[in-house]
Amino acid sequence: MKEKKVNNVEEEDFFDEKPKKKKKEEKTEKEVVYVEKEKSLFSRILNIVLWIILLAWMALVLVDYFKVRDEKDPIFCWFNNHTTTYENGTVTECTGLGYKVIRYNREDFKAIEFGPFWISDRTAEESK
Questions:
Q1: What is the DSSP string of 80-99?
Q2: What percentage of the chain's residues is helix, strand, coil (to nearest 5)?
Q3: Which are the contacts of 57, defined by CB distance < 8 A and separation ≥ 6?
């Protein structure tokens, strides 16, 4: 006895009933956001390469910074390496990737200065 009619309403045996298929539900907000955040293989590789470049640059800057702090010559200072001679000594400038090192060997002023690439020789300003 699978179905009974009572008052024109069909009753079914619930143990024999197969689950009804639900209509396709709309995606929730979390699922939509997750789908939007999926990255392509190219963007992942580009992200990794950029991080490697950034970390390598930071390593170069830090190595030269610590060398200069210990009053030694920088290793990675490759560009614009020139010396200016004054009456009482010399000033040597060299530029690295985003930084500049200035070594003052003057009678009245001996120091090494490490800073961004836009710094200039302070003694040249005083001489003018």
A1: EEEEEEETTEEEEEEE-SSE
A2: 35, 30, 35
A3: 97, 98
Bridge partner list, 91? 84, 104
Tell me the CA distances in angstroms from 30 to 40, 59, 84, one per residue in order.
19, 39, 63
What are 43-101's pLDDT values in tens digits? Answer: 889 999 999 999 999 999 999 999 888 888 888 888 778 888 888 888 888 888 888 88
* ∠ CA 45-48-52, rounded to 5°: 140
> Angle at the Cα of 17 (from 6 to 2), degrees rounded to 5?
40
Give the tokens for residue 30.
């979390």
Cβ atoms of 112 and 102 within 8 Å: the answer is yes
- Strand duo 3-6 + 9-12: pairing: antiparallel
Alpha carbons 98 and 117: distance in angstroms, whole number: 5
pLDDT at 56: 95
Domain ranges of the chain: 27-127
